[in-house]
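Can anyone check this?
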Amino acid sequence: MNYEIKQYDKFKFVEEGEGEPLLLLHGLFGALSNFKDLVEHFRHQYKVIVPLLPLFDLDIFHTSVGGMEKYVQKFVEARGYDGIHLLGNSLGGHVGLIHVLKHPERIKSLILTGSSGLFENGMGDSYPKRGDYEYIRKKTELTFYDPAMATKELVDEVFEITSNRMKVIKIIALAKSAIRHNLGEEISQIKQPTLLIWGNNDTITPPFVAKEFNKLIPNSELHFIDQCGHAPMMEVPGEFNVILDAFLSKLKQPAATIA
């Protein structure tokens, strides 16, 4: 299903449904398509929002995880969202973590899946090779447990990005910024209920990363999904949505009834 991309001031985003805001942040090679099953499932109960992060639109000095967080903060303020359930995948999780640490007042809960912020494998030493379609296909396949998830359409999207010299420079800037901006010493300050949904076969942010997040974030719960890689909401959307649904439903109950 195609959703209308709305524009408000300088912000482009999808907004579907009514209810508590569920704000979704995509990763470095992410797009709206990453969240299509999630949007479709949750728009009947929540206001599901997906801002298009300006990965390639900011000047090079602001092309960083901090720059992305400032964009998200301005977007949240401009739209007046409050009581937000903030979900981030990969780099989007990292941006979400920084946002919760800097501006906790509007965030009701945090959901991380394959998030950077502590450790990530990235694309390896040769990242990224321009103009080598086969290389890009293999790297895209590594995102998933099932290589067939790396459809031609998805590989074409990544290939187009990595064929543009300025976009490659900005990808490298963002990747380096993510590595530099390690949050290990800060994330124990997060007070919001936090859900960690991780692929047991994630090679980019492996399972030990999820366990470390779980250990460091006080009010957190961790769920692993078998035969699943770095993008659970794409690879196993049914199981992902069940786990997220249960977590969000628990938060809706009056405090006295939560077990």
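Reply from J.R.: I decoded it. Residues 6-119+182-257 form a domain with the Rossmann fold fold (CATH 3.40.50.1820).
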